[in-house]
UniProtKB/TrEMBL annotation:
Annotated Flagellin C-terminal domain residues: 221-306
Name of this chain's protein: Flagellin
Organism per entry: Acuticoccus mangrovi
Principal location class: secreted
Pfam families assigned to the protein according to its UniProt record, in alphabetical order: Flagellin_C, Flagellin_N
Keywords, comma-separated and alphabetical: Bacterial flagellum, Cell projection, Cilium, Flagellum, Secreted
Length: 307
């Protein structure tokens, strides 16, 4: 039976063509964007997970930047401490040489004074990002001895957390005008035997070969040696923090890569599969158009009955 009112064959062919056109549009979108899930309507759950992960990846990238700045800051600290260690070693050697009776201690003091000025200058110049951890004023308003480097961004069921790598600069500062027990490693008064002085204030120019002065000279050597040991410990502390920042930076890089892979697994399109599907759908579309044309043409055959 052929009906002019309800053309079943044409309706089926048109429905098939619409379905194929919809699938073709979806596949074209995946091929052009490279994404299997581009919006929430494609898959609300996967899109939400992927978008959150991408947001966290952006935060981790910022953590990497913070680690880079923090590492540069600590590297300046370590360099300043290491240079100071060398100066203290030289100063110690000069004092040992000055212990020899008959040595012109005025000339030796000239060299020592140069080292003292040099160490003070190094402490003052160890500045990066407007921060100086070697020359500090612990009496200043808002002073905080704990300096932190942002090291991680963490998401858990309880919320967001930021982890840091901390450095207590009260144990590594070289100079501190606050003085007293809070003074730095170089300007802190130390007592060895009957002599109390700090590294930056030592002056041997007036010492003679008397027994008392030679004893004082030996005690100066003890003061410098104690400061040298403290600077070595401070260098070790700074070096440990440097190693931690390097390790954390490597971990953050690996985490960013893992997040990218996880996101890709959720929303990226399989281009080989999509290209094959695209070719198949284009063929199906052509066949559906032909089928619809045949279905429409069948109705015109009814005219032959009236001719």
């Amino acid at each position: 039976m052929t009906s002019l009112i309800t053309h079943t064959a044409a309706m089926v062919a048109l429905h098939t063509l619409n379905v194929i056109s919809t699938d073709l549009k979806t596949t074209n979108s995946r091929v052009s964007t490279g994404l299997r899930i581009a919006t929430a309507r494609d898959s609300a759950a996967y899109w939400a997970i992927a978008t959150t992960t991408q947001s966290d990846t952006g935060a981790l990238t910022t953590v990497q930047d913070a680690l880079a700045i923090g590492r540069a800051t600590i590297d300046v600290v370590y360099t300043g401490l290491d240079s100071t260690r060398e100066s203290l070693q030289t100063m110690k050697e000069l004092l040992v040489a000055a212990r020899q009776p008959g040595v012109d201690r005025t000339n030796v003091q000239t060299q020592i004074a140069g080292l003292q000025t040099d160490m003070q200058n190094k402490a003052d110049a160890a500045v990066i990002n407007e921060q100086n951890f070697l020359s500090v004023d612990s009496s200043a308003a808002g002073y905080n001895a704990t300096k932190s480097v942002v090291a991680a961004f963490e998401r858990s069921a309880s919320g967001i957390a930021i982890s840091t790598i901390d450095l207590d600069i009260s144990s590594i500062a070289l100079v501190d005008p606050a003085g007293g027990t809070a003074a730095g490693l170089l300007d802190k008064d130390r007592t060895v035997g009957g002599t109390t002085d700090n590294v930056l204030a030592i002056d041997i120019s007036a010492l003679t070969d008397s027994a008392a002065d030679l004893t004082t000279l030996e005690e100066y050597i003890g003061i410098v040696d104690a400061a040298l040991i403290d600077v070595i410990d401070a260098s070790n502390t700074a070096g440990t923090v440097l190693a931690r920042t390097d390790s954390q930076n490597a971990f953050i890089s690996a985490l960013i890569d893992a997040n990218a892979r996880a996101t890709g697994a959720l929303i990226d399109a399989d281009m080989e599969e999509e290209s094959t599907r695209l070719a198949a759908l284009q063929t199906q579309q052509q066949l559906s158009v032909a089928s619809l044309s045949i279905a429409n043409a069948s109705a015109t055959s009814v005219l032959a009955l009236f001719s």
